[in-house]
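Internal QA ticket QA-208
Title: Verify multi-chain structure generation after dependency bump
Assignee: T.L.

Test input:
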Amino acid sequence: MILDLAAQGVQMFLVLALAPMLTGLVRRVKARLLRRRGPPLLQPYRDLLRLMRKDAVLAENASWLFRVTPYLVFAATWVAAALVPTFATGLMFNWSSDLIAIISLLGSARFFLALAGMDVGTSFGGIGSSREVMIATLAEPAMIMIVFTLALIAGSTQLSTIAGFTLSAAVGLRVSLGLALVGLVIVAIAENARIPVDNPSTHLELTMVHEAMVLEYSARHLAMVELAAMLKLLLYISLIACVFLPWGLAPEGSGKVAYLIGGATYLLKLTVGGVLLAFFETSVAKMRVFRVPEFLGAALMLGLLAMLLRFVSRSL
Amino acid sequence: MLIAVASLLGLAVLAVAIARRARGGLIIYAGSLILSLVLLALALRHLTLAGFKPVDMVLPLGLPWLGTHFRLDALSAFFLSVIDLGAAAASLYGMGYGRHEHEPGRVLPFFPAFLAGMNLVVLASDAFTFLVSWEFMSIASWALVMAHHRQTENVRAGYVYVVMASFGTLCLLLAFGLLAGPHGGYAFEAIRAGRGGRNAALILALALLGAGSKAGLAPLHVWLPLAHPAAPSHVSALMSGVMTKVAVYGFVRITFDLLGQPNWWSSMVVLALGGATAMLGVLTALVQRDLKRLLAYSTVENIGIIFIGLGLAMAFQANGMVAAAALALTAAFFHVFNHSLFKSLLFFGAGAVQAATGERDMERMGGLIHPMKLTAFVFLAGAMAISALPPLNGFVSEWLSLQAILLGPDLPQWGLKLMVPAIGAVLAFSTALAAACFVTAFGITFLGRPRSRAAETAHETDRFSLTAMFALATLCLLAGILPGFVIDALAPVTASLVGGRMPVQAGASWLSIVPIEASRSSYNGLLIFLFIAASAAIGVVAIHRFASRRVRRSAAWDCGFPDPSPITQYSAGSFVQPIRRVYGKVAFRAVETVDMPPPGSLRPAVFSMVLRDIVWETLYAPIAKGVDRVSGVVNRVQFLTIRRYLGLVFAALVFLLLVLATWQ
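Actual output:
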C-alpha cells in the first residue's frame, strides 16, 4: 500500500520534473542539427523560474476566467500525464481513468485555453483559438478512433492492460497496429503544435496557433501554460512508448529493482522520442493552415481503416 | 400522482383568471414549482425503491369501452423524474424571468398545462390517452411558441411547428392502429399480450416518424430550431430539455416495450438516422449567430446521440447480448437525463442574456462575463458539460456510449459490423464539434470586448433565475463525479426493457464506474475531480507563496498592434470560418466569394458567403411546392355549380362502393 502510493507519487512528480528537460532536449537537438550551439538542457527550468518570479501583467479587461485558466490547464494536463504509465503499469490510480478519459482531460484543457485566447478580445487571440478549435475537431476524432483500434486489439481501454497485452505473445504483427501508430504520431504532432502543423518557436501571425492563443499571458500565468505544453509533449511520448514499446515497464506489484529498470528504460525512451521529434521537425517545412486538415485527415482515415479492420477480422 | 397532475391543470385554469394581476405570475410559477417537486419526489421514490411493482389505475373517462388507463412503471418513473426535474427548474427560473413578459396572459395559463400534458403522456397506458395527452402537450407548447405572436418569424415558426406536430401525431395514430390490430385492443396491456407477428417494420417506421418528428430526428427536425427559440426562454428550456425527451419516451415505449424483440436491420435504420442527426445538428449549430437557435440545433445533435444509444441497444438486443444492450440503453438514458440538465441550464443562461441585453444575436454581445459574472460561470459549466468534458456529466454518458460501441465486433451481422464503427466515428466527431461549437458560443457571448451598447450596459439577472441555474449546474457536477448512483437508479428501467442491467456500481471501490469489468475499462469522476482540484491548488499555492503574486493591469498587448475598435475582434462567423471551410463544402454547399477591388479603386471590398440548408431544399421545398400546385388545381373545385357538386358526391359514392366490393 505504502509502496503503491509512493510509486504513484513518484510518477506524478517525475513527469513534472522531466517535462521541461524533454523540451530542452528537443530544442537542443534541433539547434545542433541546424549547426547552432543551442541553449543548455536546463534552460527551460530557468525560463520557468524567471517567469514565475515576475509581476503578472494583465490586460485591462481580462476576466477571472483569464486568470484561472492557466492553473486549470496545468492541473488537467498534469493529472492526465500522471495517469499514463511511465515506468510502471498498474499504479494505484491508473484505473481511475482510461485512455478515453485521458484524451478528454486534454480536451478540457484545450477548451479553457481556447476560451482564454478569446477573453481579452484581440484579433490575435481570436485567430489562435479559432484555428486551435478547428484542428481539435479533426485531431480528437482521429485520436478516439486510434483508441478504439487499440481497445479492440487489447480488449480494454485501460492503458495498463493494453501495455500488458503488447508485452504478451498474443500481439503479433498486425496491420491495424501499424496504422494506429502512424495515426497516433500524426495526432501527437498536431496536438503538441509542432512543425509541420504549428511552429512552437515563432510569434509570427501566419504560423501560429498555440502561440497566438497565449499571446496575452505573462509571468506566472505564462509559466503555467508553458509547463502544461511541456507536460503534454511528455504525455504523448509516454503514451506512444507505453502502448507500442512497453518493454521495461514494471508490472503491477513488482519490487524496487523493477521500478528502477522501468525508470531507466523510460528515460531512454523519452530521449529517443525527443531526438526523433527534433529530426522530424528539422526535416519538414511548416504547412499552410488549410493544408492541416488534409494532414490530419490522413490520421483520421488511418484510424478509421484500422478500426474497420478490427471489426471485420480479429487477426489483422 | 394523478392528483398532482390534475392540480397542474387546475393551476392552468386559475392562471387564466389571475394572469393580469401583478403577482399572478409569481403564484402560478410557485405553484408549478411545488407540484413538480411533489411529482419528482413520487417518481424518484418509485424508481429507487427496491421491491417496486408497477402501479395501474383505470379511470372511467375517455372512450366508454376503454376507459383511461394509467400506469407507473420503471420506464415512466424515470422519464417522470426527468420531466419534473426540468419542470421544477423552469418554474423556479420563471418566477424571476416571467417578470420580463409583456403579455403574461399568453404564457401563464399554458405553462402548467404544458407540464401536465408532458406528465400525462408518460403516465398514459392506453393508446387513446397517450395520443390525447400527446396532442395536448403539442398544442400547449404551440401556444407558448406563439406567445410573442407579433413577430413574423414566430408566426412562421408556429406554423411549421403545428404542421409537423400534426404529421407526427398522425403517424403515431397509425402506428397505434397497427399495434392494436383488427380487434382494437388499445390498452397497452392488450397490445403487449398480442405482440409479435404484426407488421413490425411498418410500425417501427411510423414510430420513428411520429416520435422522431417531435424529438427532432433528421430530416424531421426543421421545426425545432424555429420553434424552440421563439418561445420565452424557460419554455425553450422545457421544450428542448424536456419535451424532446417525452418524444424519446414515446419511441422507447413503442419499440422496446410494445413491439417486443427488434430486428437487427431495424437497429441499422435507427443508428443511421441517429448518426445523421448528430452530425447535421452539430454542424448547423456551429454556423449559427443566434444564441438560442444554436442551442436548438445542439438539441438536434444530442437527440441524435440518444438515438445512437437506442439503436445500439436494439442491435445488441436483437442478437441476445443482454449485458451489452443494457449498457447501451443505460448510456442513452443517462444522456437523456444529462441533456435535460445542461440544455435547460444553457437556455436559462441564454434567457438571462436576452433579458439583460435584449439581443439573441451573438455578434452584438461580448464581454458579458464582467457584468454577469454568475451567469457566465454557470453557462460555462453547462457548456463544459454539453461538450462532454470530464469531470462533468456529459462525459460520462459519452464514455458509456463509446464503451458500448467497443462491444460492437461481437455482433454477427456484417451490416452492423460496418455500421457500428462508422457510428463510433460519428460520435467522436460530434463530440469534438460540439466542443468547438460551445467554445464559440461562450467565447463570443461572454468574452472579449462588448460589441454593442446593450452589451456594455448589461446587468446581472435576478435571484430566482440564478438559483435555478446554480441548482442545475450543481446537478451536472454531481452526476459527473458520482455517476454510479445514476447508473444504479437506471437498472430497473433497463431490466424491464431488455431484461438485463449493468453491474451494480455502488459497491465499486472509490465510487468509480465499471461497465463490464475493471481490467477492461473504468472511470472515476470523483477522483479526477479531486486530482484536478488538488493539482491546481498545489500550483496556485506554490507559486503565490514562493514566487510572485503581484498583478499589474495595462493595455492589451496584441503583438504591439492593439486596435481600439471592438468590431475588429473575432465574431461568431469569423471564429468558425476555418471549421466551415473544412466541413462546409459538404454539409452546406458553402460558397465564399471575395470581391477585391483593383488597386486605386475606392470601391469597398465585399465578402459574401452562402450557406444552404440542404434538407430544407431537397425535402421540404419540393413538398411545399407540390402542395401549392395541387391546392392551386383543387382550388377550382371551390367554384362549381350545385349540379356538379352532386355529381361529384355521386361519383365518390360509386367509387367507394366499388372499392368495398373488390375488397371483399
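Spot checks passed. Chain B touches chain A through 86 residues (CB under 8 Å).
Status: verified.
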